[in-house]
């Protein structure tokens, strides 16, 4: 009898768990995914990385961001080989994720019912659901398993809605339609696999704000993305501020090194290897005379960074 009771309890628990599955991840789940973030959060649980950091991130070189993350043990955050709608612009933002799969009618019916029970719009297709929750500074990132024909996640109508909500763009491991119309949306951009005149069919949304794979990169809701003509990199929210200032200091080091090489004060090998105490001291003197108005960070942020990284020893 006890064994039957245990089995019945397990069955009921499993059934309840299955019924409770959400289309959009709960704030509690997103908080658990991003537990290392200690700052402010949005109501949906995603880390609220500041607009100021997002702006400074635009000036970070892709190689610098990649190198920093590799040094922190994050080796699967970069993806390249994109078709970019406006290649000359840079986009940064806070990630909202969505996953798409080939259509299966019974599963699609469940997704639609569950989404409606979560208060999502029932008047259109489910591919509008991630768009409806975008906020300023968000970037819509979707795993569309690389599908191009019949895998067009948006056209110009949804593109306008995306920009109206986020003032940003998209990163799709999938395609778009009406590329000409999307190019006319001022400020909008997209990193996509291609474009096609077909419309979305035999494909369905399966989750919002859950972990996804985009090419060779893993992406979590609340990550911060840097996207430019050299690719896309997805940065854990708790690391982005340190990544930014680390990259900014590296840029200042490079500027100092280039200047001293032009002046022939040091040999190339001296600058391109571990700096001697003499060069470190010279760099500190150089940076102390650097105009505050031209620094990418505040003087206090710079001094604190230099102190914690032993530049002043």
Automatic annotation (TrEMBL):
Which InterPro entries does this entry report, sorted A to Z?
A: RraA/RraA-like, RraA/RraA-like_sf
Keywords tagged on the record: Magnesium, Metal-binding, Signal
Cofactor(s) the protein requires to work: Mg(2+)
Binding of Mg(2+): at which residues?
178
Top-level taxon in the UniProt lineage: Bacteria
Positions binding substrate in this chain are 155-158, 177
The reply to whether Magnesium figures as a keyword in the UniProt entry is yes
Molecular function (GO) terms for this protein are: metal ion binding
Q: From the UniProt annotation, give the residues forming the signal peptide.
A: 1-20
Q: What protein is this chain from?
A: RraA family protein
């Amino acid at each position: 009898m006890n064994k039957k009771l245990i089995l019945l309890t397990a069955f009921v628990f499993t059934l309840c768990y299955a019924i409770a599955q959400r289309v959009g991840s709960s704030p509690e789940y997103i908080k658990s995914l991003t537990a290392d973030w200690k700052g402010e959060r949005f109501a949906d649980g995603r880390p609220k990385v500041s607009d100021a950091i997002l702006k400074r991130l635009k000036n970070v070189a892709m190689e610098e961001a990649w190198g920093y993350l590799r040094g922190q043990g994050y080796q699967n955050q970069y993806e390249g080989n994109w078709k970019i709608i406006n290649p000359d612009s840079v986009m940064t933002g806070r990630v909202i994720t969505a996953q798409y799969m080939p259509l299966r009618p019974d599963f699609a019916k469940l997704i639609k019912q569950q989404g409606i029970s979560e208060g999502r719009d029932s008047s259109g297709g489910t591919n509008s659901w991630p768009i409806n929750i975008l906020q300023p500074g968000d970037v819509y990132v979707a795993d569309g398993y690389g599908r191009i024909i019949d895998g067009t996640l948006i056209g110009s109508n949804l593109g306008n809605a995306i920009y109206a909500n986020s003032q940003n763009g998209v990163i799709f491991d999938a395609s778009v339609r009406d590329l000409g119309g999307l190019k006319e949306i001022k400020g909008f951009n997209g990193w996509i696999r291609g474009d096609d005149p077909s419309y979305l069919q035999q494909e369905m949304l399966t989750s919002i704000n859950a972990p996804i794979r985009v090419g060779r990169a893993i992406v979590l809701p609340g990550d911060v993305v840097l996207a430019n003509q050299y690719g896309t990199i997805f940065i854990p929210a708790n690391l982005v501020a340190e990544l930014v200032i680390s990259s900014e200091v590296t840029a200042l080091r490079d500027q100092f090194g280039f200047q001293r090489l032009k002046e022939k004060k040091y040999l190339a090998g001296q600058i391109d290897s571990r700096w001697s105490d003499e060069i470190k001291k010279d760099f500190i003197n150089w940076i102390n005379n650097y105009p505050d108005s031209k620094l990418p960070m505040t003087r206090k942020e710079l001094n604190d960074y230099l102190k914690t990284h032993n530049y002043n020893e």
